[in-house]
Amino acid sequence: MSFLAPLANILRARRDLAGFLLGLQREQGDVARATVGNLRVHLLAHPDQVRDVLVTHQRAFTKGHVLQRAKILLGEGLLTSEGEFHLRQRRLVQPAFHRQRIAAYAQDMVDRAWITADRWWDGETVDMDHEMMQLTLAIVARTLFDADVDAEADEIGVALTEALHLFQTVFIPGMHLLDRLPLPHTRRFARARGRLDATIYRLIAERRAERARGKERGDLLSMMLSAQDAEGDGGSMTDEQLRDEAMTLFLAGHETTANALTWTWYLLSQHADVAGRLHDEVDRILGQRRATADDLASLSYTRMVLSESMRLYPPAYAIGRRALEDYPVPGIVIPRGALVVVSPLVTQRDARWFPDPARFDPERWTPEAQAARPKFSYFPFGGGTRMCIGDQFAWTEGMLVLATLAQRWRAELAAGQRVAMRPMITLRARYGMRLVLRERRQGSRGQGIEGSEGWRGGAVSSLPPPSDEQAAAGRLPFHPPIS
């Protein structure tokens, strides 16, 4: 099939990238082609083709143009680096994501989710996208960097969103050549990156100062400092190298999980039967106590809900690779240098693997149903040696946060809330996600859940009720946890 008009495709992709990718597969099948501006794009949708690109023939590809451009934000971190340097950095970071360490992170995940659950009010309207971003940012800061960023959370969130705007121009020919010019969008990006760098470099400086005093925290940043000291000539990792890895994990570690949780809350608001089953499970398994890592195996329906949410709205919705050599696929040969895209959003909405694919149905995730499908019909975390290093961290966090919040709350979509996908580097909600909160256990405020860090010694909440102005605005100020 001949390539579609390059300029028309730029407009289609910029207006609705998710719809553009889904449309390519619908119109052309498992091997779809389009020229978008100056890019030759090949979308491969069949699970076998996904496996070949990500695993079997992964050495035939390098990172795509989006992540190449992402280096201006993430530097040479795990997400953007290549070859032996990437493998070395991955080995260095891997211990932080060992199963036992992730289990140790569970308490912090639940503690932070409980703080969020306790500052919500019955009948309050919140932007769940904002709430989940704040929560997962606090979790990744505490678990991986042993830091509190509550006071900076809003500024960090605004800076991250502004930085990600840059990647909406990836299909415009020559835009990367303008990145160094003092244009409005480049100035905004520079300010955003500077704000993010301020937090990361502050954390690095704190760890270096602590190490100079002989103090070791054992967090990821300290581990990277120690591991690098033992390499080669004994020199330490530069601040720039530390910054790139910390920035990648700091941002990627909260952005994707926040998106997954936001879409999950939206889907639950639209499916009372699924929400009811979820609440029944958390009530049966957890009762009034706090969740722990040991509960993960028992929260099977919670995992099914999250799995189905990420099927419909995968946070990493597209994975780009550039062909290093001519690459044959059924019917054509993809030329060297072309962009190859495999898309969880596309493959996971294919009726061959998921009948009635637009329907939200957690029952797709029974062991029997999963065994009947090709492995790479579902790949929200990628695959092969470039598979997301934090996939188990994300599963643990997503399940524990969802279960903890669902112990106390259910949500309804706010009147007039528009819902649409906003594909940036991750799959965000275009208009936010305003939800009305409904407390499931009346009178539980101030009583706590057994074992909650925020309620030691039987402390009683003294948080004030919302003012009329706050209630009308649908937002409440952040209240710090009670110690």
In words, what does this structure look like?
With 483 residues, the chain is an alpha+beta fold. The protein has one domain (6-473): Cytochrome P450 (Cytochrome p450, Orthogonal Bundle), CATH 1.10.630.10. It is built from 18 helices and twelve strands. It has helices spanning 6-15, 17-28, 47-56, 65-69, 71-74, 83-93, 99-119, 128-145, 153-165, 184-212, 220-229, 239-270, 272-286, 300-312, 344-347, 367-371, 391-408, 468-473; strands spanning 31-36, 39-44, 61-63, 125-127, 319-323, 327-329, 332-334, 339-342, 409-413, 421-423, 427-429, 434-439. The strands form four sheets. A five-stranded mixed β-sheet has the order 1-2-8-5-3. β1 (31-36) and β2 form a beta hairpin. α9 (153-165) crosses α10.
Question: Which architecture per CATH?
Answer: Orthogonal Bundle
| Percent of residues in helices | 40-55%
Largest sheet: 5 strands, mixed
Remind me, CATH topology?
Cytochrome p450
In total, the number of domains comes to 1
By CATH's scheme, which homologous superfamily applies?
Answer: Cytochrome P450
Number-wise, the strands total 12
Q: Taking Cα atoms only, what radius of gyration do you get, to the nearest Å? A: 23 Å
**H/E element string?**
HHEEHEHHHHEHHHHHHHEEEEHHHEEEEH
Q: Give me the number of helical elements.
A: 18
Q: Write down the overall geometry.
A: globular
| Low-pLDDT stretches | 229-234, 446-483
Q: Give the strand order, joined by hyphens, for the main sheet.
A: 1-2-8-5-3
CATH class: Mainly Alpha
Terminus-to-terminus distance: 65 Å
The residue-averaged pLDDT reads 84
User: Into which percentage range does the β-strand content fall?
Assistant: 5-15%
